[in-house]
Sequence to fold (268 residues):
Amino acid sequence: MDTTAFSGLQRSFQESIKTAQKVLIGIGEEFNERFEKIGRFPKLASALNEVDANPALAWTVPFLEKLYLEQAGDDSRTEAYRRLYELVKDKDYFIITTCIDGHIQRAGFDSERIVAPCGSYELLQCRAGCCGKLYPAQDFMRPVRQAVMDGAGLACLVQPVCPECGAPLVFNNIVSAESYDEAGYRPQWEQYTRWLQLTLNRELCIAELGVGMGLPNMIRWPFEKIAFYNQKSSFFRVNGSIWQMTEELKNKGISIGMDAVDFLRGCR
Ligand SMILES: [Zn+2]
Fold:
């Protein structure tokens, strides 16, 4: 890819953040962890082989994913998040992300300024959704970590269950939990909507970064609406595959047809 063609856009993106009073950031699919580098972690890879050989251990897979997330890092995505952090750290910003991998938390952002409506690997919930209680996942990770790292094997692990009804506990995110309990992100969602109200009539820079059409009513459509109604806003849509702008925002929005991770890494 001829990245020099994008350097002007990267400059105007950074300039727009610099001059804005508020910065609204949406992070989407292009930032999702793809669990591709499992080969780098031989102990995790052999634990997954154990699951393949014994389907009764399938419940451990999300716990192994969490282990992976704790260890995998420092790649292009992390670098992109760090660049973004450098751009906004002194601004009044808010981030909404559909990612559940938690990588963004490592870059230095204020967690009070992030909402992750699709959940995370930080909390567990009852699979049956009986009681609406959430449990810190960390409490259950120690035995899993030990079984994998010591090579003791997964068969010795006991699946955590809901103290109320005995159903298995699953991660509180849209991938792991069939009846996903939204209580996990509610408080941050309220913060987010309060913050949004304060952007009315302010110079707002809207950055939609790598957001696809998977869950358009979470970021893509609301951002278009905000950009349309806020006369003082600027709107950047960065996406490697679907960067097109709607008719209403044609004269206002800036479409950038580049993978958002690569785009941010080029901002300096
Ligand atoms: Zn329960």
Remarks:
- The beta strands are 22-27, 92-97, 114-115, 119-126, 134-136, 169-173, 204-209, 234-238, 254-256.
- Helices lie at 7-19, 42-53, 61-71, 76-88, 138-149, 186-197, 220-229, 260-265.
- The first strand starts at residue 22 and ends at 27.
